[in-house]
Design a protein that fits this description.
Blueprint lengths: L18 H11 L2 H14 L3 E3 L48 H6 L12 H8 L53 H12 L3 H12 L11 H8 L3 H11 L12 H11 L5 H8 L1 H6 L2 H8 L3 H12 L21 E5 L5 E5 L7 E3 L1 H6 L7 H38 L1 H6 L9 H8 L3 H8 L3 E4 L2 E4 L7 E2 L8 E2 H13 L9 H10 L6 H10 L5 H15 L1
Helix pairs in contact: 1-15, 5-6, 6-8, 15-17, 17-18, 20-21
Amino acid sequence: MSLSPKLEFRQTQSLVMTPQLMQAIKLLQLSNLDLISYVEAELERNPLLERDEREDGDDIVAGPGKASIESDGFSGEDGAGSTEGFSGERDGDSGEAGDWSEAGAGSDWLETRLETSADAIGDRLDADLSNVFPDDHGHAGGDPSPQPAFDPWASQPGRQQASSEDYNLEAFVAGEKSLADHLADQLGLAVTDPTRLIIGHALIDEVDEAGYIRADLSALAERLGAPMALVEEVLATLQGFEPTGICARDLSECLALQLAEKNRLDPAIKALLDHLDLVARRDFAALKRVCGCNEDDIVDMLAELRALDPKPGASFGSAPVQPIVPDVMVRAAPDGSWLIELNTETLPRVLVNNSYLASVPRGSRPDTERAYLAECLQTANWLVKSLDQRAKTILKVATEIVRQQDGFLTHGVRHLRPLNLKTVAEAIGMHESTVSRVTSNKYMATSRGIFELKYFFTSAIASSEGGEAHSAESVRHRIRTLIDAESADDVLSDDTLVKLLRDAGIDIARRTVAKYREALRIPSSVQRRREKQAELSANR
């Protein structure tokens, strides 16, 4: 066997993602809340980034320390600074009042640097300030003096200045008590034995958000080294706490605790609670046999069950509801088209602070500082460009969606067209993955409500007449409309729904109708018939 040199050439192609590209992709798929958090973190980290505090429509005047100010009532055509009510005679003075702009041109009222010492102010006003005390808030001329600009209690720790602009009222609001804290407070008043207190706190730790104890009590007793009877006694004590029905092990026990407090836990309703599966199926015939009651009694007991709280612990420690803020606003134009614009409230506006960069001396800076500033400048520029590119991409995708779903915006859900990512990507000249990132966690405000951008992308269902395909969302809307319009004597089965939909030009299978019905959380025709009959019996 001989060895010989061999030369091979291989050509490969790979996609190298630069940090800037990764940043742009990351920003594209972020929601407005996540985007604001990301930008806030960058503002704290990068000294060359600053927040754009200008309002929409403000003019930018080149030059440091310059700004353009225009206000109604302080600019007119008669001359600079001349306003109605500030020209002519004043207080019976026969002399000319003069132009305020001319009077102020040579005076010191417009000086930007004023002396704040008592002597300088006394010389300027030709008055003696020796008898003026900062703590004296007396009355002048019978009129009450304005309230002091400072809080006399501000020196005390933990108090805020009441007159400050950043006065925070939420600082005085007590925090919401959790369910565990609420039960622990009651346990400290009801139990004094240390052993029972330990068992009680261990049981409270096992209570979930709905107020149930799902843990195995035998395993808990073994872990604590306590007898099972003692654990059950402490559990019975906890079940007597407020809210009623807390610390139950299942739904039946929770409802039984609430009925026992109302003195309504009779043998018939106990049998009803033991067979909640029959209640869920609306099997009134079986319930009458189990409870030994007639149909009217069953209806009355079910009405009592509906008045109870199946989740007694849900009222504690609830997370704040975060409202949905749309990213795109769509409204009708006078000519019949649609006006599409981005929601400026969800767009963080940042600028590159070039003045700060210019103020840093360049002469004797170490290499590490120069590299750090160069990196900060590059990151700031890329962030500004990425935010701008993100806004343009969202607007482009939203415009194409509105063009495709014009029928939905005009006539409603029944005219929602089937749409996929490929169609939009080909129309705007982008990749499908880009469109997918844009439509994630983004919302559009229309005249018909606020919808997620992914709402407009639905699968197609063929037409039975060979025409245009129907959207799956519009088909689900048709199914819900048909079921809502049914009566107790004419409950529509899945086969009947298939026939009605095919008559309307929608070619759909029975299993698809059942799948859509279950997705809409609509019970079967048998359960709906039982419920409607029960409602009729209750209303008689």
